Amino acid sequence: MKNSLFLIAAAVGSTFGMSSAQAEQKVLVAECHGKGARFFLSEVTQQEANVLMGTDGPMPDNAIIVIAAGKEPFWSTRSRKQIDQDCGGEGQDEIELFAGTQPRDGVWRTDISTRAEDCPTAIRQGLAGNLPGPESDSRSMKWPRPFDPNNLPRDYNPGHTWKPAGENRWTTSLLDAAGLPSFEGRQFARSTMVMTLKSETEITMSHTMQINLPGIAQQALGGGGNCRIITDSVSVWQSD
Predict the structure, then answer these.
(1) Between vectors from CA 101 to CA 75 and to CA 139, what angle results, nearest 5°?
(2) Alpha-carbon distance 75 to 79, whole Å?
(3) CA distance 161 to 197
(4) How far is CA 214 from CA 147, 181, 190, in A?
(5) According to the UniProt record, where is the region Disordered (predicted)?
(6) Which of 49, 184, 207, 208 is deepest in the core (most CB within 10 A)?
(7) Regarding beta strands 106-117 and 74-76, do their DSSP bridges make them parallel or antiparallel, or are they unpaired?
(8) Phi and psi for 123 in degrees, rounded to 5?
(9) Using an 8 Å Cβ cutoff, are 185 and 215 in contact?
């Protein structure tokens, strides 16, 4: 009860001398990350920020909340360029005007592996020694803002059309081909990819080539009617 009364009193005190427009104004936040600052518009209002930080309003219209590791958040009236330089950057002042997870620019390492599951004996024998082994690659990336796999560089996304498939998840179909129907079912081949932005420092992608065979073909090839060749890649941010 005492805590509730304190918060109410603090909220009332923080709005003294502050217009209703100022009180409800969303605050701009600068998040220091060692090589500069990330600027974004918070969902927190100036009134709420004063309560959280124990400060009194009103704040100047150009005031920015600065967040840095090992320090208490504080208000600053320095320009965005100056704050970015204070945070170790070169003076960028771009404000992120979108919601959602954004991967960090910089050097990313990608590890790729391929496997076959539930494939007929003849196909497994044919693939033996021909599937690519584990691969790794590192490259510098500057991601589109906001992140959208359809806007990736052509060498990273060679013409695929990605569709949303959930939060920070996209899918694309590369092949969907069906053969003639038979009494034992229809043979088809399907190739799909799924990309997931798991965090600002990790992106996963899975490419599945699926071959469904009718019973007579399974017998001839040695079982495995739902053959899948799966290539997984995990990309992890390494450094700026």
Answers:
(1) 110
(2) 12
(3) 17
(4) 41, 9, 15
(5) 118-156
(6) 49
(7) unpaired
(8) -70, -40
(9) yes
